[in-house]
Amino acid sequence: MTKWLRSGLRRDICVVVAGTDAEAPTAQECKATLESRYDDRIEPKTFYGALDALTDAGYLARTVDGLQDRYELTDAGERALREQYAWLRDALD
User: Fold this and answer.
1) CA–CA separation, 66 and 54 (whole Å)
2) How is the chain split into domains, by residue range?
């Protein structure tokens, strides 16, 4: 497991991005989804720091769409999520 996904917030951001069926989500859509899931507010500095770290590390790809950035999981991000999933599945079996 790589250090970039040790953070639960970073993993959860990747899950939200991966779980979007339609258009790649914006940062604000990701943040709102997680706040709804956590039933708590996420500090913007914390959220955007995690988002930037994931992008810088190559787990997410950022594209500009007008005034907003949209995020997609990269191959590396998908591999890391699948490793996490396999680890959890093995632990629960």
Assistant:
1) 22
2) 3-92
At the topology level, CATH places domain 3-92 in: Arc Repressor Mutant, subunit A (1.10.10)
CB 27 within 8 A of CB 13: no
Distances (CA, A) of 11 to 3, 40, 44, 64: 11, 17, 17, 23
pLDDT tens digit sequence for 9-68: 999 999 999 987 778 999 999 999 999 999 999 999 999 999 999 999 999 999 998 889
Q: Taking the model in full, what pTM does it have?
A: 0.87
Long-range contacts of 38-42 (CB under 8 A, 24+ apart): 42/9
Q: Which two tokens stand for residue 48?
A: 């955007």
